[in-house]
Specification:
This protein is α/β, with parallel strands linked by helices. Among the domains are: 86 residues, Immunoglobulin-like (Sandwich), CATH 2.60.40; 183 residues, Glycosidases (TIM Barrel); 56 residues, Oligo-1,6-glucosidase, domain 2, CATH 3.90.400.10. It has 17 helices and 19 strands. The strands form four sheets. The protein has an eight-stranded parallel beta sheet with strand order 10-9-8-4-3-2-12-11. A six-stranded antiparallel beta sheet has the order 1-13-14-15-19-17. Strand 6 and strand 7 form a beta hairpin. The radius of gyration is 23 Å and the shape is globular. The two termini are 19 Å apart. Bound molecules: alpha-D-glucopyranose. Alpha-D-glucopyranose binds next to loops. The site of alpha-D-glucopyranose (GLC) has 9 residues, from loops.
C-alpha cells in the first residue's frame, strides 16, 4: 500500500486569518496539582511560575490556569467565593501579576478560568441572598423557588445535578429551594438578572486589565434555563449518549445564552484584538456547538465529541471531517483535546478493554496500560498535526495514566461522594505531577506533602527521567511541538488520503511545505511512501513501515 495509489479529498482550506489563537497549543495547568512552591501539599502560583521555562521548552504557546480564586474547594476551586482575588492556598494577586508577567516575558500567553454558571454557597452574593427575604432583589441573583407547604418534599422540577442526585436543595430555613446543577455548594446564578451580567463584565475587565490573554469559560452551555423551568423529558443517559440534541434539555444549550456571549465578546474586542475565549460547552451535535463560535461569539470551543470518539479509524476520520465542516461553516478554528481535569487520562482511556463507563475503570484487569500509552502517543501525534488549536493537559506529556487505586478516604471529587462511590469521579487525573524521581513527592515540592497520594509508577515517569531520552513521551511531545511550529502545521490545507479503512492519513499543506501524517489503527503494518522522509513518529524506529497503533509525520521530498 503506498500513498501514490490514493486520491485525496480536501476537507479544510488554509485560513487567511492569522490570529494567534487559531493555531495555538494551549497547556492546561490545574493549580492544585502542578507544582507546590510552599510545600503545603497543594500546588500554587509560585510553583507554576517556577515551571514556566519548562513550558516554554515544551513548545506550547499559552497556558490556561484552572481556577485559583478564593474558594472553599468543594469542587476543586470551581466553587468561587470571589472572582477578583486569589485563594491564599495558591498565593496572592501579586503572585498572579508575577506569573502573567513572567509568562509574557517567555512568549507564553495566559488564559484564566471564568466560572459564570454558579458561585460557591460561601460567596457573599449567596450569603446576602439567604439573609434577605424570598422575592427580594438579593435572592434574584440566584434561582430560588418556594417550598410547597402541601408537599414539602416535592422539588420544583425533575432536574438532576451533574454530580448525581437532585439539582435542588432547601435553604437553611427550609422555606425555599435553590437550584444547583452541580454540588449543593454551587448555587446557579440567575443570568436573567442584569446585575449579574454587569458584575461579570466587570470581572472580565478586571483580568483583562491585569494582562490576561483570555478566558476558558466553564459550563458555557448552562447559563440560561428554559422559561418556567420545565421538567426534562428525557434521561441523563440519553443526553450523555448523544441520543438527543442538547438543546432539548431545559438547562443546557438554550439559544438565549448566546446574547451573553456576544456581550462578552464586545468587552474582549474593546481591548487590543488579541484576547480570546474558549467555551467549555458539552453540546451536541456539531451544528449546535458551532453556534458558540460564530464570528461575534467565542473564539473557539473544546471539541469534546472528538475526545469521546473511540479508538476506531472510521469514527475518528468522520470526527475529523465533521469537526472541520462545522467549524469552517462559521470561520472558527477547530480545537483538538484528548485530556483534561474532568476526564479519564487518555493514556488509560484508550487502553480500556470495555466501554469506559465510570464504573468499569475500577477494575484494573479491564485496562491494557501498554496499549493505552501507545495509542495515546499515536492519538497525540495525530491531533498535533491537525490544523487548528490544540490543548494539552498537564502530565499527558509524561504519559501519565489515570490513578485508579486512590482510597475512598482521600477522594475529594463531589461526584464520588454524591453517588456513594458509584461514579468514581475525577481525582484520578488530578494527582500531583512527578517532576523528579528521587525527591520528596517526586519533586512536586520539597516537603513530600501531597493532597492526593502519588503512585510508585510516577517515579519512573517523572520529567527528569524522560528528559533527554529520545524515546520518552516527553521528548516525543517536544519534538512534535517543535516540528509543528517549524512547519506551520497549525494552519494549512488538509487533504484526506485513503490508505485503507483502518488507517487515518492526511496531508497538511501550506505555502512552505507538505506534511503527510499517517496513523495506523489496524493490525497490519502500513508501508510508507518512498518519496518521503520520516520527521517525527509516536514510536521509535519507524523507517519503511508503520506498525499498529502508531502515527508518523513525513516530509514530502
Ligand atoms: C466544569 C469543570 C468541572 C467542574 C464543573 C462545575 O465542567 O471543568 O471541573 O466540576 O464545571 O463547575
Amino acid at each position: 500500500m503506498t500513498t501514490q495509489k490514493t486520491t485525496g479529498i480536501v476537507v479544510h482550506p488554509a485560513s487567511t486569518a492569522s490570529d494567534w489563537w487559531r493555531s495555538a497549543v494551549i497547556y492546561q495547568v490545574y493549580p492544585r496539582s502542578f507544582a507546590d512552591g510552599n510545600g503545603d501539599g497543594m500546588g500554587d502560583l509560585q510553583g507554576i511560575a517556577s515551571k514556566l521555562p519548562y513550558l516554554r521548552d515544551l513548545g506550547v504557546d499559552a497556558l490556561w490556569v484552572s481556577p485559583f480564586y478564593p474558594s472553599p474547594q468543594a469542587d476543586g476551586g470551581y466553587d468561587v467565593a470571589d472572582y477578583r482575588d486569589i485563594d491564599p492556598i495558591f498565593g496572592t494577586l501579586a503572585d498572579a501579576d508575577i506569573l502573567i508577567g513572567r509568562a509574557h516575558e517567555l512568549g507564553l500567553r495566559v488564559f484564566v478560568d471564568l466560572v459564570p454558571n454558579h458561585t460557591s454557597d460561601e460567596h457573599p452574593w449567596f450569603r446576602r441572598a439567604l439573609a434577605s427575604a424570598p422575592g427580594s432583589p438579593e435572592r434574584d441573583w440566584y434561582i430560588f423557588r418556594d417550598v410547597d407547604p402541601g408537599s414539602p418534599e416535592q422539588r420544583p422540577n425533575n432536574w438532576e445535578s451533574d454530580f448525581g442526585g437532585p439539582a435542588w436543595s432547601k435553604t437553611p430555613d427550609g422555606k425555599q429551594w435553590y437550584l444547583h446543577m452541580f454540588d449543593t455548594k454551587q448555587p446557579d446564578l440567575n443570568w436573567e438578572n442584569p446585575a449579574v451580567r454587569e458584575e461579570f463584565r466587570g470581572t472580565l475587565r478586571f483580568w483583562l486589565d491585569r494582562g490576561v490573554d483570555g478566558f476558558r469559560v466553564d459550563v458555557a452551555h448552562a447559563l440560561i434555563k428554559a422559561p418556567g423551568l420545565p421538567d426534562f423529558a428525557h434521561s441523563r443517559e440519553e443526553l450523555l449518549a448523544g441520543e438527543i440534541s442538547t438543546n432539548e434539555c431545559p438547562y443546557y444549550d438554550q439559544d438565549r445564552l448566546h446574547e451573553i456571549v456576544r456581550d462578552w465578546r464586545t468587552v474582549l474586542d474593546s481591548y487590543d484584538g488579541a484576547r480570546a475565549m474558549v467555551a467549555e460547552a458539552w453540546v451536541q451535535p456539531y451544528e449546535r456547538l458551532v453556534k458558540y463560535v460564530r464570528p461575534d461569539e467565542y473564539h473557539q470551543a473544546f471539541n469534546f465529541e472528538f475526545l469521546e470518539t473511540p479508538w476506531d479509524a472510521k469514527a475518528l476520520r468522520n470526527g475529523i471531517v465533521s469537526s472541520y465542516r462545522s467549524n469552517d461553516s462559521v470561520g472558527a478554528p477547530t480545537t483538538w483535546v484528548l485530556s483534561n481535569h474532568d476526564v479519564i487520562r487518555h493514556a488509560t482511556r484508550l487502553g480500556l478493554k470495555e466501554s469506559g463507563a465510570d464504573d468499569s475503570i475500577w477494575r484494573t484487569d479491564n485496562i491494557d496500560a501498554e496499549a493505552g500509552l501507545r495509542r495515546a502517543r499515536a492519538a497525540t501525534a495525530m491531533v498535533l498535526a491537525l490544523p487548528g488549536s490544540a490543548y494539552i493537559y498537564q502530565g499527558e506529556e509524561l504519559g501519565l495514566p489515570e490513578v485508579l487505586d486512590l482510597p475512598a478516604s482521600v477522594r475529594q471529587d463531589p461526584t464520588f461522594h454524591r453517588t456513594a462511590g458509584k461514579r468514581i469521579g475525577r481525582d484520578g487525573c488530578r494527582v500531583p505531577i512527578p517532576w523528579k524521581k528521587d525527591a520528596p513527592a517526586y519533586g512536586f515540592n520539597t516537603t513530600g506533602e501531597s493532597w492526593l497520594p502519588q503512585p510508585e509508577i510516577f517515579g519512573e515517569l517523572a520529567a527528569d527521567q524522560q528528559h533527554g531520552d529520545p524515546d520518552s513521551t516527553l521528548e516525543m511531545y517536544r519534538r512534535l511541538l517543535k516540528t509543528r511550529r517549524e512547519r506551520g502545521l497549525g494552519n494549512g490545507e488538509l487533504t484526506l488520503r485513503d490508505l485503507g479503512e483502518n488507517v487515518i492519513a492526511f496531508d497538511v499543506a501550506n505555502s512552505q511545505n507538505v506534511t503527510t501524517v499517517i496513523a495506523n489503527l489496524g493490525q497490519e503494518p502500513v508501508e510508507l511512501p518512498q518519496d518521503a522522509t520520516v520527521i517525527a513518529s509516536s514510536v521509535p524506529g519507524v523507517t519503511s513501515q508503520l506498525p499498529t497503533d502508531a502515527t508518523v509525520w513525513l516530509a514530502r521530498n
